[in-house]
Amino acid sequence: MRTERQISSGGVIFRRSNRKIEVALIAVKGGTVWGLPKGLVEKGENLARTAHREVKEETGLDGKILGKIDSIHYFYAHKEESETVRYFKIVYFFLMECTGGDVADHDEEVDDCRWFSIGEAARKLAYEDEKRILKKAREMIRPARSRRAPQ
Question: What is the mean pLDDT of residues 24-42?
Fold first, then answer.
């Protein structure tokens, strides 16, 4: 079986709402699998640009990249014409603060996109490696909250 490598990039896009943190998740596979927005790096793109583009396409949201969270990697197989190809996929995730847009404007590649409290998002995510990324994102967001002046 032939093995190929794929490089993808995506993001954890968040907003502050009523002193709580909310995260946008996408649903695929008929709306049954919730995950983080991500996609393949296109020729001439760097990882951050891909993350920004994919988050905007899949969620309808625009955001400011605050930093790289981490990466995940896994194997999967896909039937292509006359053979099955095994892929080794690496996905880099960036933390993004929402600056605008609407989750109703997600593209047709996803079945749904919604805002969830960060705790609920962790419970909704289908894959353990994405739950780990969200946990790291939450830790990156916390220091930013503690630096804010009391209101």
Answer: 96
Residue ranges of domains in the chain: 2-147
- Report yes or no: 9 and 47 within 8 Å, Cβ to Cβ: yes
Q: Which residues of 78-110 are buried (b: 16+ CB within 10 A; e: fewer)?
A: eeeeeeeeeeebebbbbbbebeebebeebeeeb
3 state DSSP class of 57: helix
Q: Considering only CA atoms, which of 110, 139, 105 is closest in space to residue 122?
A: 139
- pLDDT tens, position by position, 58-117: 999 999 999 999 999 999 998 988 899 999 999 999 999 999 999 999 999 999 999 999
| DSSP 8-state assignment for residue 27 | E
pTM (2 d.p.): 0.91
Domain 2-147 fold: Nucleoside Triphosphate Pyrophosphohydrolase (3.90.79)
Asked if 104 and 21 touch (Cβ cutoff 8 Å), the reply is no
The DSSP output letter for 123 is H
